[in-house]
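Lecture notes, continued. The same structure-token format from the folding unit now serves as the input rather than the output. Read the line below as a description of shape only.
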């Protein structure tokens, strides 16, 4: 079936170009949904803004850095405590958020004095913290503030601080994907190569596009440590500001989330000759393949196989227990972008689950090419889906569980379908062997819980 216009979209016929149902024998390139394009007027998008992509997804993960949001306080609040990325620095990045609290008078007369005051105040209040990222927002970008110049002045004045400025207001792009891109390129332009790490292994990597959601970085870091590989920098899960400045010293860039961080891997390859290796780290077979690829690159295949055998022996029995009970369940994935193609085949192969519908908020056509290639005939693929499309699709495919964010999750709970947080997980980590068992457990608990069935019963009858 070619691109599809849902009934709810009859008044917005342009939406047909964004929705596809996979049919046998079709050329997915011919019917690829439009992606990374402007949201159509009249449709209720679930996208985040470009600023959100820079701060919430990447920059805000750093565990030792003041996150200064130059704009109204709501911009800071909206990107704080909505992701579950812990750290071994007492969760510093989850405890605090900083805002210049721009008001109407600052919009009229300028907010640069306010920014300067807030930067100094933040460093004074936390004298042991010497690193800061400043983010522009829609309001301060429109009035023409120059945070770059102020940051340079304060660095010279204070001497021992380092400040990075991300100039990516919310309106800069069609979705949060623009924020990923801007931060990636600005960081490699301004900060990579400005700090020298201590090397203690003959094998070094950057682990790129991993944000330590509920401890993912801990799991992957432990795997590579057992293989004798030093992670120079996680970009940016459980990482420090200075570790990410030292990415130029790695021998290999291992890329997990290609959509949010593939840009910096490409730049590291172009500027420093560091090869890029894309991997999947969700699912048993994908994780094993990723470890083998890295092992082959360094010529330590034996260490990779030893690790894979030990982890499978430990976790395979639990995975088989869940697979037996989840076989044939139907799952929908409504997340950002790459998790569609990271999860669909892993869920089907490792758990026996059928993935029946997928929606991407900020994916590009490249992401749809990958997920459609991995998906089953009859699966539904939507770019930038709206609320009414979600409900129509649910009637069509009737999934047993939905992986999505809390906003859509609250909607589907009202029609008594269990959801699992696809952005920040329910009970993670979900990466690696242990992580996919956690994911299977959450699916099992969600689909076996009587709560949704009971919620649908009218006790008045």
């Amino acid at each position: 079936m070619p691109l599809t216009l849902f009934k709810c979209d009859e008044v917005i016929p342009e939406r047909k170009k964004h929705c596809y149902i996979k049919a046998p024998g079709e050329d997915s390139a011919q019917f690829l949904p439009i992606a990374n394009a402007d949201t159509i007027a009249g449709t209720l998008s679930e996208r985040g803004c470009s600023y959100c992509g820079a701060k919430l997804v990447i920059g805000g993960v750093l565990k030792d850095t003041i996150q200064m949001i130059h704009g109204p306080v709501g911009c800071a609040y909206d990107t704080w405590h909505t992701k579950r990325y812990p750290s071994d620095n007492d969760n510093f990045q989850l405890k605090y958020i900083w805002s210049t609290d721009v008001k109407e008078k600052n919009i009229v007369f300028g907010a640069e004095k306010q920014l300067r005051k807030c930067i100094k105040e933040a460093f004074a209040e936390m004298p042991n913290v010497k690193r800061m990222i400043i983010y522009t927002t829609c309001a301060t970008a429109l009035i023409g503030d120059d945070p770059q110049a102020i940051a340079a002045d304060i660095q010279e004045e204070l001497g021992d601080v380092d400040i990075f400025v991300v100039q990516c207001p919310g309106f800069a792009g069609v979705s949060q994907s623009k924020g990923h891109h801007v931060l990636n390129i600005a960081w490699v332009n301004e900060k990579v190569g400005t700090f020298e790490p201590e090397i203690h292994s003959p094998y070094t990597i950057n682990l790129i596009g991993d944000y330590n959601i509920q401890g993912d970085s801990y799991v992957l870091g432990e795997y590579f440590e057992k293989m004798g590989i030093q992670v120079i920098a996680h970009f940016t899960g459980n990482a420090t500001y200075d570790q990410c400045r030292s990415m130029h010293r790695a021998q290999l860039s291992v890329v997990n989330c290609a959509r949010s961080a593939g840009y910096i891997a490409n730049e590291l390859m172009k500027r420093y000759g560091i090869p890029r290796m894309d991997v999947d780290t969700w699912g048993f077979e994908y994780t094993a393949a990723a470890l083998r690829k890295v092992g082959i690159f360094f010529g330590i295949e034996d260490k990779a196989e030893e690790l894979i055998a030990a982890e499978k022996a430990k976790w395979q029995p639990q995975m088989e227990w869940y697979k037996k009970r989840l076989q044939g369940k139907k799952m929908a994935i409504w997340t950002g972008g790459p998790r569609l193609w990271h999860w669909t085949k892993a869920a089907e192969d490792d758990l026996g689950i059928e993935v029946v519908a997928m929606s991407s908020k900020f994916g590009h056509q490249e992401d749809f090419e990958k997920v459609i290639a991995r998906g089953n005939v009859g699966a539904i693929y939507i770019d930038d889906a709206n609320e009414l499309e979600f409900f129509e699709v649910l009637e069509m495919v009737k999934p047993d569980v939905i992986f999505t964010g809390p906003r859509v999750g609250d909607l589907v709970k009202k029609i008594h379908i269990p959801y699992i947080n696809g952005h920040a997980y329910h009970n993670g980590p979900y990466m690696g062997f242990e992580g996919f068992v956690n994911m299977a457990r959450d699916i099992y608990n969600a689909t076996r819980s009587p709560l949704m069935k009971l919620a649908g019963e009218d006790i008045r009858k």
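Point for the exam: The mean pLDDT is 95.
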